[in-house]
């Protein structure tokens, strides 16, 4: 079997006898596939991947592209520096990669990094007119399994063809700001009773001295310190994978095995999202929803939460999320006391 130019072939086995071939590209200069437009039969328009790599976009898009290209290069360098073993990919690894066949896009969603709004946008893009306004889609509907297709649902040849020819993008965030955001949403909101029961009761039982019976029953008053102790407890990952809301990005999206063409950041969400929509050719008809929240988790808020975490646990937590800091070029927060 002849290897495609510029690519590396990985053979992945799922439990049992299911095999998945994943093509990993260090660089892509001439995408193979165009996309037929709906306006003129037979006319071929450039795919987002071709638009990105051919470099003949408008000046504003070119400026955004230079920033995105720098992030891609930093990610590739970090992968080479900090990963030693190439493990194989299985269908389970592809469940966070959402596919838009109409616009040749693959998006790896990361909870607490604007993923609800990206799912809404993709529902508009893939709905054949059923949805037109992302913000009109209820948040819970955006997360319903089956509303969007994931790469894990396709056959081996279909997976390879899409990885080879679609624009693959991911949005990331400062790891500890994302973690604090997840804690605030899942453990300090009264409506998240499912998380309180599923995780809160376990956390309180293991990490609180002399807990009250009500706390053991409801699990609705977990402190951030108890949450951190739970995360770094060796038993936690031995028992089951971390929940996706606080799982590491490199574990959810495998950026050293899958070549992401666009690495967007939460800190520059609006221009980065605009760049993706421009590459997809829909910037004139669709706008990425902006958040009006005034209580969004930022560095100052995260620093306040970490102020009460001992240096011992801060260091353990940093080591747990270290790869996300390294791969996506985030500096060690100044508020950490790990020495």
What is the secondary structure topology, with strand pairs?
Layout: E1 7-13, E2 19-25, E3 35-36, E4 44-45, H1 48-54, H2 59-82, E5 97-100, E6 105-108, H3 115-126, H4 139-142, E7 149-150, H5 156-165, E8 167-172, H6 175-187, H7 193-207, H8 213-218, H9 224-232, H10 234-239, H11 249-253, E9 262-265, H12 269-279, H13 299-306, H14 311-327
Parallel strand pairs: 6-8, 8-9
Antiparallel strand pairs: 1-2, 3-4, 5-6, 5-7
Helix pairs in contact: 2-12, 6-13, 7-9, 9-14
Keywords, separated by commas or semicolons:
two-stranded antiparallel ribbon; alpha/beta; 339 residues
What does this entry show, briefly?
The chain is α/β, with parallel strands linked by helices and 339 residues long. The protein has 14 helices and nine strands.
How would you describe what is shown here?
α6 (175-187) crosses α13, α7 crosses α9 (224-232) and α9 packs across α14. The termini are far apart. The protein has 339 residues and is α/β, with parallel strands linked by helices. It has a five-stranded mixed beta sheet with strand order 7-5-6-8-9. A two-stranded antiparallel sheet has the order 1-2. The longest helix has 24 residues, at 59-82. It has helices spanning 48-54, 59-82, 115-126, 139-142, 156-165, 175-187, 193-207, 213-218, 224-232, 234-239, 249-253, 269-279, 299-306, 311-327, and strands at residues 7-13, 19-25, 35-36, 44-45, 97-100, 105-108, 149-150, 167-172, 262-265. The chain has one domain (59-328).
